[in-house]
Amino acid sequence: MKKRDFLKTSLAAASTVFLPKSIMALGITENKLRTAHIGIGGMGSSDLKSITSHPDVLVVGLCDVDSNAIRKASEIHPNAKTYKDYRVMLKEMANEIDAVIVSTPDHTHAPASIMAMEMDKPVYCQKPLAHHVSEVRAMRKIAEEKNLVTQMGIQVHSFYDYKLATLLIQSGIIGKVSRVRAWSPKNWGYDGLKPIGSDLVPSTLDWNLWLGTAEERPFKENVYHPANWRKLIDFGCGTLGDMGVHIFDTPYNALALDVPNTIKNRCRKPNGFGYPEKNPHPVQKITPIVKKILPPVQKMTPTEPERSQQIQNGANGARTEPEPEPEPPEPEPEPGGNRFGPGTIHTPLTL
Question: Residue 308 belongs to what H/E stretch?
């Protein structure tokens, strides 16, 4: 399979299928797509495994600030060059890379992706696309100006269940959709105090490179790396950024929705360090509530909503505020928690 065909089929959800001249002009390893991977621990390890399962992929570069991740990946891809600084890898291997995969913590998504795209490299970047909306807009602008192949990774987006839900909605089988409720039991928040003091940085970790564009601070064990950064404002996007991307994906896609007109949030006051764990509810511990009042679908369809609301609630989808109008009767819940009522979509966590 030629590189052009591979990218068309593998990146079917990309913004464009036009290949930059840097790919078409390659003469070596003509039948292989040469990939460089930035962030190869955690989700990065999963991305590396999935992408390299295609026979026409050749991994040429591996980059991670943690040498433990490099060691594990190198055992599988011994011929790939290894780096701890993605800037060095992209500069040194500019003529050896056909596409770049970014699977770092959220705060490094945009810097790494933008540098690769400025070098005319197609990019596959994990969700959420970036740490700030302004970064997302900058990434989109560069991709469009350079006509690059790009894709954001959303796990299970192509699964049968999501495709079936889209079919049911767009065909009008469930009727006209006027409201969408989405919830997740996850809680990527931290209401505690900002840590004080410092711990010894592991010899396997380049702490300065892990911080990247974030403000310098001492290393604290079990606070940042490897698994707690999603809770923290300077590095992650909380539960909404982690799970909202998944759960809002189907209704946004099926109803052809655009950006919200307004967003309402109810939670504790910001503390400048961690995302809220719970709202001010006196009894039930839940994640922050976010209500999005969405604009009507531009394209007229049988399911076009006059108004659509998305509410991210806490554990088990518990609601904590009264509804302004009565709800239609709903059937008994099916096993697993799925409930579909007339004109309403209930989107539980299905990962």
Answer: strand 308-313
Per-residue pLDDT for 260 more than 70? Answer: yes
Q: Is 220 helix (H, G, I), strand (E, B) or coil?
A: coil
Q: Which residues pair with 83 in a beta bridge?
A: 63
- Tell which phi-psi region holds residue 341, choosing left (phi > 0), alpha (psi between -120 and 50) or beta: beta
3-state secondary structure of 208: helix
Helices then strands, counting H and E runs in the chain, come out as 12, 11
- The DSSP element (H or E) to which 152 belongs, if any, is strand 150-153
Q: What is the pTM of this model?
A: 0.76
Backbone angles phi, psi at 183, to 5 degrees: -145, 165
Do 314 and 340 touch, CB atoms closer than 8 A? Answer: no
User: Rounded to the nearest 10 degrees, what angle do helices 43-51 and 67-76 cross at?
Assistant: 20
Gap between the Cα atoms of 66 and 319, Å rounded: 41
Cis before 226? omega within 30: yes
Give the pLDDT confidence of 72-102 residue by residue, as tens digits: 999 999 999 999 999 999 999 999 999 999 9
Query: Phi and psi of 48, rounded to 5°?
Result: -60, -45
For residue 251, name the pLDDT band (cuts at 50, 70, 90): confident
The answer to whether the Cα torsion of 26, 27, 31, 36 is positive or negative is negative
Q: How far is Cα 24 from Cα 117, in angstroms, rounded to an integer?
A: 16
C-beta of residue 70 within 8 angstroms of C-beta of residue 95 = no
* C-alpha to C-alpha distances, 18 to 24, 28, 139, 297, nearest whole angstrom: 10, 21, 17, 28
- Averaged pLDDT of the chain: 78
CB 236 within 8 A of CB 42: no
